[in-house]
């Protein structure tokens, strides 16, 4: 429901001016700006933590977040906001990145928490969540995609640059959905900790992937995927 025609009640158009009025109303509903979405995977964290609050960033993870923040700042873009998963590792990554982007507001959301988005195809032997997890997590992650990944609002005049700090499964699923690839293929993609994935959403709704999991700004010895 973001196509201009979907936003107009055609039954209410003036019969006398018909096509002219329709064209004017359609133009008013068309998006004008481009959205740049930067999807950041959280940095390396403590895998031994039993609860989420214990899964804090490792010393290396904190270094990775510093490097990611420095890279984002070096792009010279005017970022509008940082939306991040409410999980500890994503929140800590956001706090470090935000030091490099002073003044950019931060928003926490449960929608971007890690989970099992959809049963992967082909299946893998080392990771088999219970079926109920796909139903619970899948609905939430799909809701995150629909809520955050869309063309700009018609009222938006200038291009926007937004950062989303979340998790590998969420990012991989979002990329597949945004590019209209079979979402079941999400597990075929691999993302390093602290990596940057850049999606561009044009006013006509077309999506381009500029970078996927970029960590070329990190020294080789700092790169991990845990």
Strand order of the largest sheet: 3-2-4-1-5-6
State the secondary-structure class.
alpha/beta
CATH architecture heading of the largest domain:
3-Layer(aba) Sandwich
Instruction: Please indicate the count of domains.
Output: 2
Number of DSSP E strands: 6
Question: What is the CA-CA span between the terminal residues?
Answer: 38 Å
The first-level CATH class of the largest domain is given as: Alpha Beta
Order of helical and strand elements: HEHEHEHEHEE
> What is the mean predicted local confidence, pLDDT?
92
Number of helices: 5
Sequence stretches where pLDDT stays below 50 over 5 or more residues: none
Multimerization status: single chain
Question: How does the SSE layout of this entry go?
Answer:
Elements: H1 18-29, E1 35-41, H2 59-74, E2 81-85, H3 88-98, E3 105-109, H4 131-148, E4 160-166, H5 168-178, E5 196-201, E6 207-214
Parallel strand pairs: 1-4, 2-3, 2-4
Antiparallel strand pairs: 1-5, 5-6
What does this molecule look like?
The structure is a single chain. The chain has 226 residues and is an alpha/beta fold. The protein has two domains: 1-30, no CATH class; 33-222, Phosphoglycerate mutase-like (Rossmann fold, 3-Layer(aba) Sandwich), CATH 3.40.50.1240. The chain is built from five helices and six strands; from the N terminus they run αβαβαβαβαββ. It has helices at residues 18-29, 59-74, 88-98, 131-148, 168-178, and strands spanning 35-41, 81-85, 105-109, 160-166, 196-201, 207-214. The longest helix is centred in the middle third of the chain and has 18 residues, at 131-148. 31% of the residues are buried.
């Amino acid at each position: 429901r973001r196509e201009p025609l979907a936003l107009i009640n055609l039954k209410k158009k003036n019969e006398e001016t018909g096509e002219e009025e329709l064209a004017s109303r359609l133009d008013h509903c068309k998006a004008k700006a481009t959205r740049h979405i930067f999807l950041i995977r959280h940095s390396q964290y403590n895998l031994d933590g039993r609860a989420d609050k214990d899964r804090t960033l490792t010393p290396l993870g904190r270094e990775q977040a510093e490097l990611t923040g420095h890279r984002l700042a070096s792009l010279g873009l005017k970022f509008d906001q940082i939306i991040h998963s409410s999980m500890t590792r994503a929140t800590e990554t956001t706090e470090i990145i935000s030091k490099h982007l002073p003044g950019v507001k931060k928003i926490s959301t449960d929608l971007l928490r890690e989970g099992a988005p959809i049963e992967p195809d082909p299946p893998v032997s080392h990771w088999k969540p219970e079926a109920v997890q796909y139903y619970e997590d899948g609905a939430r992650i799909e809701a995150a995609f629909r809520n955050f990944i869309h063309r700009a609002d018609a009222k938006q005049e200038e291009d926007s640059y937004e950062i989303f700090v979340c998790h590998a499964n969420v990012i991989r699923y979002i990329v597949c959905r945004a590019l209209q690839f079979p979402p079941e293929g999400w597990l075929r993609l691999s993302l390093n900790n602290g990596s940057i994935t850049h999606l561009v959403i044009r006013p006509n709704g077309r999506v381009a992937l500029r970078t996927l999991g970029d960590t070329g700004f990190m020294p080789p010895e700092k790169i991990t995927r845990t």
